[in-house]
């Protein structure tokens, strides 16, 4: 199995780790967790999806456990929030949503790229990219004893799915990998932002009330 030394993939993965760590830490502080709780939730949010992806493709030990730079990036995001929370909490909600969308896009394309490096079928690689993007947030919500946001909030997993699919289709069409990673990330980011702006939601099952 091919293991990548792609600098772009590493940079994207590490940046996504930091962005999601900040988001996880913000949610932890808002949930009144102690310092350890903030660190744990930050790491889980930032690394959960990547760990699940690596276990599924046989990349063990998972990169975020084998390479300490991922843990350092996650804990850096947590520490930033802990010590600058009074400032960070004043950041507009729109910016937080933008950071979340950026992290989603970064992880979606990074996860897809790594799956392709391990010669996973392109269709499954798209699914693994999506899992990378939403897995950490799902585990985070489970730890907080609430329904995972990905299952009920706006267009979230679909945005990651779309970004990953654009990336794979472009690569299969002969476009440069780096170009399609950027393109897929942008598609995911824009779809997520527009869905929040326009209040797009996936259809839900209508349950009739029986008296």
Summarize the structure.
The chain is an all-alpha fold.
Shape: globular
Average of pLDDT: 88
User: From N to C, what is the helix and strand string?
Assistant: HHHHHHHHH
Largest pleated sheet: none
Rounded to an integer, what's the Rg over CA atoms? Answer: 17 Å
Number of strands: 0
Oligomer: single chain
* Stretches with pLDDT under 50, minimum 5 residues: 1-5
Describe the protein's architecture and organization.
The chain is mainly alpha-helical. The chain has nine helices and no strands. It has helices at residues 7-30, 35-57, 63-66, 68-83, 85-88, 93-117, 122-143, 157-172, 177-198. α1 crosses α6, α2 (35-57) runs antiparallel to α4 (68-83) and α7 runs antiparallel to α8. It is globular.
Layout of strands and helices, then pairs:
Blueprint: H1 7-30, H2 35-57, H3 63-66, H4 68-83, H5 85-88, H6 93-117, H7 122-143, H8 157-172, H9 177-198
Helix pairs in contact: 1-2, 1-4, 1-6, 2-4, 2-7, 6-7, 6-8, 6-9, 7-8, 8-9
């Amino acid at each position: 199995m091919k293991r990548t030394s792609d600098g772009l993939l590493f940079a994207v993965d590490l940046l996504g780790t930091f962005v999601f760590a900040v988001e996880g830490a913000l949610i932890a502080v808002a949930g009144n967790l102690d310092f350890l709780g903030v660190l744990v939730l930050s790491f889980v949010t930032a690394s959960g999806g990547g760990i699940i992806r690596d276990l599924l493709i046989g990349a063990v030990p998972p990169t975020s456990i084998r390479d300490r730079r991922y843990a350092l990036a996650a804990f850096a995001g947590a520490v930033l929030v802990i010590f600058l929370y009074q400032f960070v909490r004043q950041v507009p909600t729109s910016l937080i949503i933008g950071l979340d969308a950026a992290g989603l896009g970064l992880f979606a394309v990074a996860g897809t790229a790594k799956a392709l490096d391990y010669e996973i079928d392109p269709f499954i690689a798209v699914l693994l990219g999506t899992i990378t993007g939403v897995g950490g947030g799902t585990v985070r919500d489970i730890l907080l004893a609430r329904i995972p946001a990905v299952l009920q909030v706006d267009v979230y997993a679909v945005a990651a799915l779309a970004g990953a699919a654009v990336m794979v289709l472009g690569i299969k069409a002969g476009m440069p990998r780096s170009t399609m990673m950027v393109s897929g990330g942008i598609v995911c980011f824009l779809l997520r932002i527009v869905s929040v702006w326009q209040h797009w939601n996936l259809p839900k099952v209508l349950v009739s009330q029986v008296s």
